[in-house]
Amino acid sequence: MLRREFLFSTAAALSAAAAPPPPFDPAFASAREAALAIRSKKISSVELTTETWRRIDKYNPKLNAIIWPLRESSLNEAKAADAALAGGRTLGLLHGVPVHIKESFHIAGAPSTWGVPEAKEWRAKTNAVVVERLRNSGAVILGKTNIPLMLMDQQSYNGVYGTTNNPWNLAYTPGGSTGGGAAALAAGLGFAAMGSDIGGSIRVPAHFCGIHGLKPTFELVPMIGHAPAPYESDSNSFIDLAVAGPLARHPADLHDMLSIVAGPGPYDNKAYRWTPPAPRHKRLADFRVGYVLDEKLCPVSSDIRPALEQALRVIEKSGAKLVKGWPGGLNPQVEYDNYLYLLGAMSGDTLPDADRDMVASTPKETAAYAFGLGMTQPHQRWVAETRRRYGLRGLWEDYFRDVDVFLSPVSFTAAFRHNHDGPVATHKIDTPEGQRPFMDSLFWIHPATVAGLPAVSAPVGLTKEGLPVGIQITAPYLEDPTAIEFAVALATVTGGFKAPAGYA
Fold it and tell me: What share of the chain is helix, strand, coil (3-state, %, to 5)?
């Protein structure tokens, strides 16, 4: 067991010793509870994995969340976990616990299509770093979960695997691009998942499906092996702005998942190690909480506002100190344009010239305009925008001297109905106030992404229509445990994850 895992497991053991554990729920227990149940031999890994496959067989056909099952290998991994335990060995924090992986990460022998039909026959030869680390921790890999085409949508559908549905309402999207993973967890088809995030691809699905998701600090988790066919794992170690991170029903599981997958990659670990900093606080009352729950540039729809406001009232009632407003010196419009520019620069390097010119010709008053500039402007402009990005990180660092976490919406709306007509950028999203452009869905996730900060999406309630609402918890650079610990404390007063009806 690595030292970082030992630190986390020691903390887990101390907290577990404080009270007797509740009866184990093989459908909706936390990953931490599942690992404890296996280690204490209340259930074997084979039994738990078999039960999880029973649930997948029952519920996945209507969800289409797990799209590349690894039934045989997962049962073999479960058998190996049980054999190790019988021999007195524990493999790690996730010993024998069933988890799943986003389709975009390489698993040897499996496709990594990113939704591109022409890539259906390609198979990876090696595992992504995060897959290796999860397996080394004892995790049982159930399979791969669905994504949108090239991961560029906040829905999860493509021409290879079809459409994934939200377990709260099958007519609605579970989000994207880690929509399959979020839907599977919400329905109790596994205990944790790995995803990736550049445009809210962990946070938005967590928000839409009522679970927890962590976008870690930029470059904290290696991205090696997160690549479309035909690129092998060692060919793609950096994607600007993008991160790999965990999703889970219960926020404490984000601690454990992060401790397993975080830290320098194979080229850097000869010289560097990662030691997680302690969270700033554990009690909700001790946190200094900054917040912005609405913004004229991207107003929050009336269906999610009550849940966000109620969460803020509960936090204030707990004794936490609240500070309203953006950090001093931050201009949301300027920083949003900076994010869109850098996102366009990252996304457009392989586009044909005609496609880049089409995006760049969009009206200046639209968000797509800044995105298009990133595809077409010279390198000098990229250097200037990158300098601004790192200046923004310093601005947030100053802000977090007086504030511990910053709360904001994850998106301007809850989950929306499936909409597959025309190009993604032209999609409209229905809200009680009328239709909104798809590009608005990038606004609330951009501050943490462009500054490289950790951010957790945590469930805080439901809309009148019964759809989940999440709040975004942003923490200082490299202080991921502070965001997670705030989510843990928040769940004690809001109730945290609640299972959707019909998945008992």
Answer: 40, 15, 45
Residue 7: band (very low, low, confident or very high) from pLDDT cuts 50, 70, 90? very low
Tokens of 320: 């936490």
CB 177 within 8 A of CB 422: no
Residue partners of 410: CB distance under 8 A and separation at least 6:
200, 203, 204, 206, 207, 444, 445, 457, 470, 471, 472
What is the C-alpha to C-alpha distance for residues 190 and 373, in angstroms, rounded to an integer? 41
Structure confidence at residue 10 (pLDDT): 47
CA distance 115 to 147: 7
pLDDT at 251: 98
Rg (CA), the chain: 21
pLDDT in tens, 104-145: 999 999 999 999 999 999 999 999 999 999 999 999 999 999
pLDDT value of position 367:
60
What is the residue type of 44? S
Using CA atoms, how far apart are residues 111 and 228, in angstroms rounded to an integer?
Answer: 9
* Contact indicator for 142, 110 with CB cutoff of 8 Å: no
Residue 381 tokens read as 């402009």
Calculate ∠ Cα 77-177-183, nearest 5°: 60
Vertex 136 angle, CA 130 and 138, to 5°: 110
CA 58 to CA 53: how far, in whole Å? 8
The residue to which tokens 């989940």 are assigned: 468
Give the model's confidence band at 238: pLDDT under 50 very low, under 70 low, under 90 confident, else very high: confident
**Alpha-helical runs (H) found in 160-229:** 179-186, 203-209
Predicted confidence (pLDDT) per residue in 178-198, tens digit: 999 999 999 999 999 999 999
Helix or strand run (H / E) with residue 89: none
- Rounded CA separation 35/249 (Å): 15
**pLDDT attached to residue 351:** 57
* Contact of 436 with 194, CB cutoff 8 Å: no
The set of residues, in sequence order, having a beta carbon less than 8 Å from that of 468 and lying 6+ positions away, is: 168, 207, 208, 209, 210, 414, 415, 459, 461, 462
Cβ neighbours of residue 49 closer than 8 Å, sequence gap 6 or more: 74, 75, 77, 78, 96, 98, 140, 142
- Top pLDDT among 274 and 10 is at 274
Q: How does DSSP classify residue 473?
A: E
**Is residue 46 within 8 Å of residue 206, measured between CB atoms?**
no
Residues 6+ apart with CB under 8 A from 323: 288, 289, 290, 291, 402, 403
The DSSP annotation for 142-164 comes to: EEEE---GGG-SSS-EETTTEE-
